[in-house]
TrEMBL record:
Keywords: Cell membrane, Glycoprotein, Membrane, Phosphoprotein, Transmembrane, Transmembrane helix, Transport
Membrane topology classification: Multi-pass membrane protein
Assigned protein family: Belongs to the SLC26A/SulP transporter (TC 2.A.53) family.
Cellular compartment(s): Apical cell membrane
One function term, GO molecular function aspect: secondary active sulfate transmembrane transporter activity
NCBIfam families: sulP (TIGR00815)
Regions that span the bilayer: 53-77, 106-122, 173-195, 207-229, 249-273, 334-354, 375-397, 409-427, 471-500
Pfam families for the chain: STAS, Sulfate_transp
Organism for this UniProt entry: Rynchops niger (Black skimmer)
Protein name stated in the entry: Sulfate transporter
Length: 688
């Protein structure tokens, strides 16, 4: 046996006290380091190479800003809010991430999935408050006159007065819900950063995230169809929204607005064609084509001069105010209503941001700090919530555009924010006549990447069937139930898959590879030679309470011997023999002589004298696992079969020692534990 190193005992109490003293002490140097770490811009901005970086940052910032404006206006449909709030969100998120983010290339701002999750909460609360979810409904409380003669408006008045001003109408209540939700999500993210709970993101596997994104994309697509064809149906709310919406669409398909249908068809063709050309010739283009902006400008001009709203009743964006609304503290009463909804929003926002940051950092050879990213995203939600903004996250499409257009640092984010500010201050009213079907087209075309995941299903299935099943379950639950439930179902199902795989792992009997000291599964490989009188059993998982029974069943099945049944059979046979001997009968129950009895006591099916358990795949043992190994050691010993363990890692050996597997003084340890299968087999042969 190799000798284990003796580790020095650590006084955990003293270590904890030392850490507390260090963390609680405050010196000028430590305070400076804290500020520099909390605002990374203070470290990299003084070292900014203006001549080298400025052109790429300005170009990427302008391109992202041009893309951001139409997307922000379009995603307001998803969030159930007015376009001005989406522009606020895009402006503040870029400024705050510039100050606090550690990634040089990530584009943080409005994101379709986050907008959808915000919109679902807003719709639910509006419905509970008694507001009509129809976009073209007549003005409710505070939007016009104070009407409380109808039951709907009376309900709205009574519910909203507790949390908000009595004169707050539908739009005011909607942004109040969104800002409260955003504030709570940001607080969650900051708390997760303080308590270093970033490991939560590990439970969102790639399959879960892809399935969630695809399922949410189907929900987004479904929500935009009514704008594409210009029908007026209520916004579905609750579980099964996708199915209910499609039923309502087909019921009202006869009311489709021909003007919106034609406009949508033209816009989708133009956008898809431009995207495909951009993908095909991206190596020749210095920056992406601003197709969305061109489509919005042309469509707005056509709608304005063609009077599509007045003549054909085409739904338009309406008035977008300029400037900034005075800041307002999110309502505490509304925070309590949305506290649960904010948790999945906070986790999804953080996970997408960190995963994109790590992707960019790996590609461009620098490091990020995941904990600081948590703080950055958290404050990108907390601070803007006072300025009528809603939740943000990093967006994959804009991040890829940013890197492809020469971005070097987050200075590009400031340039993008300036473009949005220009629209906020001067250009917003020009989008009054922009048709909602054009915005829906922009949203749907932006979902191409997520919807293309369906094409990858066969390849995914070929690589890993379980991951494909996780993707399908998560995608189906996200689309057919709701996005939050879908995310929860995906996480739980993926964890169940891991548990099931450890509960029923692969087991095998090993045989020797010719003329080597290596052993492999004789069902998987040809021309292996079995070792006489020795069975080698491999269990490819940790041994713990959940798979104990499967371990024993697999062992008994593969060795073709259940020691408990065999021991019971022997006792029963011996009892019968004693009864015959007492009667003076010299023949056994089987009609054999006494001399032949000994042969009967040794069953013919036992064709081995040593069992070697390959523990190389057993990463840990719990108490049940140790007791299971002790049990088989005792049971096989009663049948004169020795049990040897091979390839145990140090933690497994420690568990066996603590559980008393090797006895009190570990004296027999070197005869029970071996560092290779071949050593155990050689020992078994020598014992014969």
């Amino acid at each position: 046996l190799m000798e284990r190193k003796t580790r020095a005992k650590i006084n955990r109490k003293e270590v904890m006290l030392a850490k507390l003293r260090k963390s609680c002490s405050c010196t000028p140097k430590k305070l400076k380091n804290f500020v520099m770490e909390f605002f990374p811009v203070l470290r990299w901005l003084p070292k900014y190479h203006c001549k080298e970086y400025i052109w790429g940052d300005v170009m990427s910032g302008l391109v992202i800003g041009i893309i951001l404006v139409p997307q922000a206006i379009a995603y307001s449909l998803l969030a159930g809010l007015k376009p001005i709030y989406s522009l606020y969100t895009s402006f503040f998120a870029n400024i705050i991430y510039f100050l606090m983010g550690t990634s040089r290339h990530v584009s943080v701002g409005i994101f379709s999935l986050i907008s959808l999750m915000v919109g679902q909460v807003v719709d639910r609360e509006l419905l509970l408050a008694g507001f009509d979810l129809n976009d073209d409904a007549p003005p409710a409380l505070g939007d016009g006159s104070l009407q409380n003669d109808s039951q709907t408006n009376t309900t709205a008045f009574n519910l909203t007065i507790a949390g908000m001003n009595a004169e707050c109408g539908k739009e005011c209540y909607a942004i109040g819900i969104a800002t409260a939700l955003t504030f709570v999500a940001g607080v969650y993210q900051v708390l997760m950063g303080i308590f270093r709970l970033g490991f939560v993101s590990m439970y969102l596997s790639e399959s879960v995230l892809d399935g969630f994104a695809t399922g949410a994309s189907l929900t987004i697509l479904t929500a935009q169809v009514k704008y594409l064809i210009g029908i007026k149906i209520p916004r579905s709310q609750g579980h099964g929204m996708l199915v209910i919406t499609w039923i309502n669409i087909f019921r009202n398909i006869s009311q489709a607005n021909l003007c919106d249908v034609i406009t949508s068809a033209i816009c989708i063709v133009v956008l898809v064609a431009a995207k495909e050309l951009g993908d095909r010739y991206k190596h020749k283009l210095k920056f992406p084509l601003p197709t969305e902006l061109v489509v919005i400008v042309v469509a707005t001009l056509v709608s304005h001069y063609g009077k599509l709203n007045e003549v054909y009743a085409s739904s338009v964006s309406g008035a977008i105010p300029t400037g900034f609304i005075p800041p307002k503290v999110p309502h505490f009463n509304l925070m309590l209503r949305v506290a649960v909804d904010a948790l999945p929003l906070a986790i999804v926002s953080f996970v997408f941001t960190v995963s994109l940051s790590e992707m960019c950092a790996k590609k461009y050879a620098y490091t990020i700090r995941a904990n600081q990213e948590m703080f950055a995203v958290g404050f990108c939600n907390i601070i803007p919530s006072f300025f009528h903004s809603f939740a943000t996250s990093a967006a994959l499409a804009k991040t890829l555009v940013k890197t492809s257009t020469g971005c070097q640092t987050q200075v590009s984010g400031v340039i993008s924010a300036m473009v949005v500010l220009l629209v906020l201050l001067f250009l917003a009213p020009l989008f009054y006549s922009l048709q909602k079907c054009v915005l829906a087209c922009i949203i749907i075309v932006s979902l191409r990447g997520a919807l293309r995941k369906f094409r990858d299903v066969p390849a995914r299935y070929h690589v890993n069937k379980v991951d494909t099943l996780v993707w399908v379950v998560t995608m189906s639950a996200s689309a057919l139930i709701s996005t939050e439930i879908g995310l929860l179902v995906g996480i739980v199902f993926s964890m169940l898959c891991i548990i099931v795989r450890t509960q029923r792992p692969r087991t095998a009997l090993l045989s020797q590879i010719h003329n080597t000291s290596f052993y492999e599964d004789d069902l998987e490989y040809e021309n292996l030679s079995s070792v006489p009188k020795v069975k080698i059993f491999r269990f490819e998982a940790p041994l713990y309470y959940a798979n104990r029974n499967y371990f024993l069943k697999s062992l008994y099945r593969l060795t073709n011997l259940d020691p408990n049944l065999e021991a019971a059979r022997r006792k029963k046979y011996e009892k019968k023999e004693k009864q015959h001997l007492k009667k003076g009968d010299h023949t056994t129950a089987n009609g054999l002589g006494i001399g032949e009895t000994a042969l009967q006591l040794v069953p013919k099916q036992i064709d081995f004298q040593t069992l070697v358990v390959d523990c190389s795949s057993i990463s840990f043992l719990d108490t049940t696992g140790v007791n299971t190994l002790k049990e088989i050691l005792k049971d096989y010993k009663d049948l004169n079969i020795s049990v040897l363990l091979a390839c145990c890692n140090p933690s497994v050996i420690d568990s066996l020692k603590r559980g008393g597997y090797f006895g009190q003084d570990f004296g027999s340890m070197q005869e029970m534990l071996f560092y290779s299968i071949h050593n155990a087999v050689q020992f078994a042969k020598d014992q014969k």
